[in-house]
Amino acid sequence: MNMTWRWYGEGNDNITLDHIRQIPGVMGIVWSLHDKVAGEVWEMERIQEVADQITSKGFSTAVVESVNVHDDIKIGLPTRDKYIDIYIDTIRKLSKVGVKVICYNFMPVFDWTRTELYKELPDGSNALFYEKAAITNHPREMVDRILKGAGDFTMPGWEPERLAKLDELFAAYADVTEEKLFENLKYFLERIIPVCEEVDIKMAIHPDDPAWPIFGLPRIIRSRDTIRRMLDAVDSPYNGLTFCTGSLGTNPENDLPAMIREFHDRIHFAHIRNVKVFDNGDFIEVSHRGRDGSVDIAEVVKAYHENGFTGYVRPDHGRHLWGEEKNCRPGYGLYDRALGVMYLLGVWDSLENAKETK
Ligand code: DNO
């Protein structure tokens, strides 16, 4: 298990690389060029600049999250080839600075979706919350609430300029069924995976969050069967997964440890976090500790350990603690994620120790 930490970049994150160095066990930085919108060219100088900042503090640059996929690729428009060429250009450039895994998603219009960013928990902290009944047929209201809540912090997949044209975007996706979206993903993968094989970069698709269709938009990476179909469609080790327990864990029918056991050799990046799912389907993000939520995190780590997992891992969203929500990106505060690292490493180390004393 190779522990990493998502960092939004110099001047764009309230947490610095020097802070991150003080969290035990973190070896790599999960990074990106966060000002790039989907479909834009990534210049080599910019890539090199961020990679140098990261390596100068002793961290690895192996994981990039995200290189966002342009909507034209997801919709399957004739312009998609142009955007796939740009994507390939970025893959090639990233391979020159030690990148080994790219995390991306294929969700139409929205990346992760929540209805509230600062829902108070019984202990006085607050966290991202999803209320099923609040998802109506009118995404505008939800989008405005999320963008307002994020304040000055940018959030990948929530670009205000793109979401300003929400009606047009929804209209463009009108004929994109689940089947069509899947075909478009396959088309994209068939073009990029040979390049990934050549430059040794593994693609790791992030599951849909939450794990079901929203606002009538199709979602295709949300269960054991949909994941199996995607992996089989382009059957190369370079076509893999970001296995996110927080996203897949929103549907209690997903047996996460069983899925890890089945897919472990195609999981290149593990996002580990916990959610508490209520009987009515609402859910809130909680601490990483297993008993605080609905995901048995120790069992998840055990499933990785059993399979000798050597891939990259990061604690995912955390609660906002001790008032930090005033000054951090939603879900990406310092404290709860740092506690998460220690919980995950604690479970891992105890499994290692037990193995040694056998
Ligand atoms: C949530 C993240 C996702 C992820 C993208 C990858 O915080 O895990 O936003 O970065 O889906 O493209």
UniProtKB/TrEMBL annotation:
Keywords: Iron, Lyase, Manganese. InterPro entries: Man_deHydtase, Xyl_isomerase-like_sf. The keyword Nucleus does not apply. GO terms for molecular function: ferrous iron binding; manganese ion binding; mannonate dehydratase activity. It comes from the Bacteria. It catalyses: D-mannonate = 2-dehydro-3-deoxy-D-gluconate + H2O. Gene3D superfamilies: Divalent-metal-dependent TIM barrel enzymes. Pathway: Carbohydrate metabolism; pentose and glucuronate interconversion. SUPFAM superfamilies: Xylose isomerase-like. The keyword Iron applies. Its EC number is 4.2.1.8. GO terms for biological process: D-glucuronate catabolic process. Its cofactor is Fe(2+); Mn(2+). It is an enzyme of class 4 (lyase). NCBIfam families: PRK03906.1 (NF003027), uxuA (TIGR00695). Belongs to the mannonate dehydratase family. Catalyzes the dehydration of D-mannonate. HAMAP family: UxuA. This is Mannonate dehydratase. It comes from Paenibacillus apis. The gene is uxuA_1.
